[in-house]
Amino acid sequence: MLLLRKISLVQFKNYTAERFEFNKRITGITGRNGSGKTNLLDAIYYICFTKSYFTSSEAQNTQYQTNGFRLEAYMDKKGQEGKIVCTVKDGKKDISLNDEPYDRFSHHIGKYPAVMIAPDDAEIILGGSEERRKWLDALLCQLHPGYLDNLITYQKILQQRNSLLKTIATQGGNQDALLDVFDEQLVYHGTPVFEVRRDFLPSFIRQVQELYDYLAGQHEVVNIQYQCGLHEQPFNKLLASNRYKDMMMQRTTGGIHRDDLQFLLDDHAMKTSASQGQRKSFLFALKLAQFEVIRQHKKFPPLLLLDDVFEKLDRERVSRLISLVSGPTYGQVFITDTHAERLLDAFKENEDSFQLIKMR
Ligand SMILES: Nc1ncnc2c1ncn2[C@@H]1O[C@H](COP(=O)(O)OP(=O)(O)OP(=O)(O)O)[C@@H](O)[C@H]1O
């Protein structure tokens, strides 16, 4: 079992200095709008992923008029204590586990897995392909240790290749040899990313379907299609055949950075055809299936962070969700709501494992 025992937040968003202790499996967090419920979930997400769920800007995570923040958390993973400290000061970020600083933050990710379900998640369906890649990558890097390193290196090489393409366009000259080197590196780091994405989806979609049917209370066929140029040809061939076009466009037009996922409901694009309720059910199914694969892979349940679910789902779906997450396969759950009574009522059958935190 993975349990977050306590966390302290200093100058993190609206928290000047605050400590929270968690002694039950399920923690309800209540308080008025803007009182910091989501920010507390985000701090928990931060110590698991070394970054905020909501923003990549550390300035936005830092309390206004200050120059940094500090998060300190104590985790219990299968009986072993882990002290995680994240600090950002004057733009410099440090993360340590049990007082050992990390050289690369990517090495922390996956050690303390978590799944967040938040209102903005609709962007996974409605937004651009980047949103879907971000979601998939955040999941896969918790399962495959080398995945994130490959992805980071791939992005760096991609940037270098794109600036070389710009230089060629403005200054001319033959840079085929250097492009060959970049291509080789893109293939080396990009192909394993493609293979992990491709192999992951078929079994994942079965879990999404099961959860969708359960939450929606009816059967509708959902599907995820993985769109990638590497289905048709190996990466080196794709880059070679695109080279002329890339030089014209001054950017790399094919590769795993262009991948997308097509979400389907009864064979129609979810983005344009599904109702709001169907989209919400799908998103929850997607996130809970994510939870399930991580649980099976790690052999313990990740933390589950549920933000504002009462506002997002109708009563029936909420009660199915609550009975699911109260069940034995779930671990520590954090759930926010503006109404304390609604939380107490939802978990009244689990009151022995339920703790309520009230924000001031
Ligand atoms: N960098 C920051 N410095 C100080 N305060 C911040 C910062 N970023 C956000 N806040 C404040 O945090 C508050 C929002 O907190 P949060 O989103 O956690 O509220 P909430 O309790 O989840 O609200 P709701 O019920 O509306 O979802 C706002 O009052 C906002 O001004």
From TrEMBL:
Annotated positions binding ATP: G31, R32, N33, G34, S35, G36, K37, T38
Keyword ATP-binding attached: yes
Domain RecF/RecN/SMC N-terminal, first and last residues per copy:
4-345
Output the Pfam families linked to this UniProt entry: SMC_N
Location in or out of the cell: Cytoplasm
Record key words, sorted = ATP-binding, Cytoplasm, DNA damage, DNA repair, DNA replication, DNA-binding, Nucleotide-binding, SOS response
Look up the record and give one Gene Ontology term from the biological process aspect: DNA replication
Look up the record and report any one GO term of the cellular component aspect: cytoplasm
**Location, primary (coarse class):** cytoplasm
NCBIfam families, per database record: recf
User: What's the family?
Assistant: Belongs to the RecF family.
- Biological role stated in the UniProt entry: The RecF protein is involved in DNA metabolism; it is required for DNA replication and normal SOS inducibility. RecF binds preferentially to single-stranded, linear DNA. It also seems to bind ATP.
* Name under which the protein is recorded: DNA replication and repair protein RecF
